[in-house]
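We store sequence with structure; for instance:
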Amino acid sequence: MGRGPDARFFESLPALTVGELAARIGGEISRGGDRTVSAVAPLASAGAADVAFLGDRKFLAALAETRAGCVIAPASAAEAAPAGAAVIVSGEAQAAWARASLQFHRPVALTRAAAPADVAEDDTVVFEPGVVLGEGARVGRGSRIGANTVIGPGVQIGRDCVIGANVTLGFALVGDRVKLLSGVRIGEPGFGAAGSRAGPIDVPQLGRVILQDGVSVGANTCIDRGAYDDTVIGENTKIDNLCMIGHNCVIGRNCLMAAHSGLSGSVTVGDGVMFGGQAGVGDHITIGDGARVAAGGGVLQDIPAGETWSGYPARPLRQFLRETIWLAKQASGKARARTNGND
């Protein structure tokens, strides 16, 4: 079974019976109303005290195999749930699950600042003027925290890190020798919304950000925390200014991202991948080790290891160049034809 939300960053609220939960989220009990549940989780990792949901029929196999104590599902799929699971029927299962998460989990608030002496590993840590530290945060030896930066509750920062001015860092575990330039935003909620009769509602984001050793992040770049699992940036990856990394992305080691690059949610990037400026990647895409995306490329499908892609939609570089040359010849030929016709 997978872990629940990290207790350093999320408070656990009191358990409820399935019947009580159904009343609060607007669902109808199909079975198991007396069962007690205390957390939310995805189908694949849920346990006996967890509430999961079926948002799409393509996950019916996962529904049949889940160990969740309670499942929220549309009426048409209710019978596919394991016999031992309680079932709440809802025509908007994901939105109901989002409401359920609010009943069980709450982000730890920065209600009181911690003293620098309680946060620093030793007196080699430097806090510039205006730094705000959340309770339970920890900063390793030799690190420097820039002016007016906010380190949220529970955040762990390794040794010899350089955190710039006006950075916000929350829901995060940071390795050694990490560099975050001014204005970086780490751990904000990922962009997730579920449809409901009342319009789209935010899906609470219950994951973390993991920045491994040697990572550098440029000014005003945003890295969102995971929806449930973690957003992970691998060792020695270098990210330029004004980049965007969505929730649940996993980036490998020694990658390079030039300015204005962006990754949608749940993108998996191998080791040694390079992104040119303004490259963009759609959600749930995998990019293999050593691949390259040219500047301005728009990636809408998986890229095999070692390949260079370009264009929008991005395709292998040789194909892109052949098509570009062909289009240029076609345009040139038509231009000549119009000129000759006017002679």
Notes: The first strand starts at residue 10 and ends at 12.
